Amino acid sequence: MTARHRIRCANNRHKGLTFGTNSITCPILRFQPKVNMPRQTFHATTGQVPMAWRHIDASGLVLGRLATEVATVLMGKHRPEYTPNVQCGDAVIITNASKIVLTGRKAEQKTLRRWSGYPGGLRVQTYETLLASNPERLVTEAIIRMIPRGRLGRKIICNLRVFAGAEHTHAQNNPIPFDTRPLPLKITAANKA
Questions:
Q1: Which residues is 61 bridged to in the sheet?
Q2: What are φ and ψ of residue 150, in 5° steps?
Q3: CA dist 59 to 40, 56, 121, 193, Å?
Q4: What are the boundaries of each domain within the chain?
Q5: How far apart are CA 59 and CA 97, in angstroms?
Q6: Distance between alpha carbon 58 and the CA centroid of its chain, in Å?
Q7: Which residues sit opposite 19 in a β-bridge?
Q8: Secondary structure, 3-state, 122-184
């Protein structure tokens, strides 16, 4: 029996005795010493998980529901080999951000606030005006707030591309269609009634 397979008994009365894997159990502790098991959990390292490009058409989708799905894919939580401290998510391209839908009275009531750091430097915009003037920022801010803060979060955000229209500039990356879960994401005339 090798030294690797032997374990010494922790009890003072059996200080010099050795209990191996094939021997009798310790009479005081009443357990069979275990052999070290190999680690079975996969932990990805940087660059080990390949990044895919995904495309989603946001026309008629609810902003918050879209943002949770996209944030999950950006972080890589949809993969079985997800590792929290490694960038293992996919890149996401969102088109038709100007056709996103806000439910209820969120367009008039919710605001996006920016402060320059100086007195009087607070800029407040409602979602309604932001959707009309800069829809890419509205969608990007909703997704950014669902991603963890820190160095890794800033790297993850670089994999997000948002376009107001139907055209995007990443056709050479061959994006695959974004599969959303079967949630009532589309807002149609039948759903509103």
A1: 186
A2: 130, -170
A3: 43, 9, 34, 19
A4: 1-37, 53-192
A5: 7
A6: 19
A7: 7
A8: EEEEEHHHHHHHCHHHHHHHHHHCCCCCCHHHHHHHCCEEECCCCCCCCHHHCCEECCCCCCC
In the numeric block, which tokens belong to residue 35? 């052999």
Query: pTM for the complete prediction?
Result: 0.73
**Which residues lie closer than 8 Å to 187 by C-beta, 6 or more apart?**
60, 61, 62, 101, 103
The yes/no answer on whether domain 53-192 falls in CATH 3.40.190.10 is no
Place of tokens 């009798």: 24
Residue at 29: amino acid letter: L
Q: pLDDT per residue over 110-124, tens digit each?
A: 999 999 999 999 999
Q: Is 13 helix (H, G, I), strand (E, B) or coil?
A: helix
Q: Kindly give the interhelix angle for 135-144 and 63-75, rounded to the nearest 10 degrees.
A: 60
Is residue 145 within 8 Å of residue 156, measured between CB atoms?
no
CA triplet 105, 139, 116: central angle to 5 degrees? 90
- Cβ pair 81, 89 in contact under 8 A: no
pLDDT tens digits for range 134-188? 999 999 999 999 999 999 999 999 999 999 999 999 999 999 998 765 545 555 5
Rg, the chain, Cα only: 27
